[in-house]
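Sequence in, structure out. Go.
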Amino acid sequence: MDSIKYYDENAIEFFNNTAYVDMGETYDRFLKYLKRGDHILDAGCGSGRDTKYFIEKGFKVTAIDASEEMVKLSSNFTGHQTIKMDFNEIDFENEFDAIWACASILHVPKNEIKDILFKFAKALNDNGILFASFKYGEGEQFRNGRLFNYYNEDSLTKTLNEIGIYDILEIWKSSDVRKERENEIWISVILKEKKM
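Output:
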């Protein structure tokens, strides 16, 4: 995936832009479905910001990232070894109470997103929780060395209904929390794996 090359080449700049951003409101929405000590997969952990927060709040965290450079930076930042793994390599089974995919699977091509969401479902325990966020809009775009997929409420709901393995608990729009990026809109979703 070309996006990995971007993160390898721009790791320090990306780390500096994201490691100290306040995600408090989104954490609160996600963590209300979990209990202290639950096991979270931070899927595409980037700087390690969220892994660090979850560990400090008493959760067990497995962090993965496909970029070698981000793996080094996040491991150093969190004091917790990040595993180098891309989404296609995920092969966990009934291992996590929740998956946190913050601004990560938005780099997965739309024709592969269902496969990744199935892998996530397999990795989750029964009734596991999944958080994911995407750029708001429609289609796909290769921009500044990275692929972005875009969804709105209708297209994201349609995709999830077609997969049929998650219940949508929450879906919402928000502005980017980084300074000077407030005009960028995101769509986020919290899902619960259906009991099959």
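Check: The domain at 3-193 is CATH 3.40.50.150 (Rossmann fold). The first strand starts at residue 39 and ends at 43.
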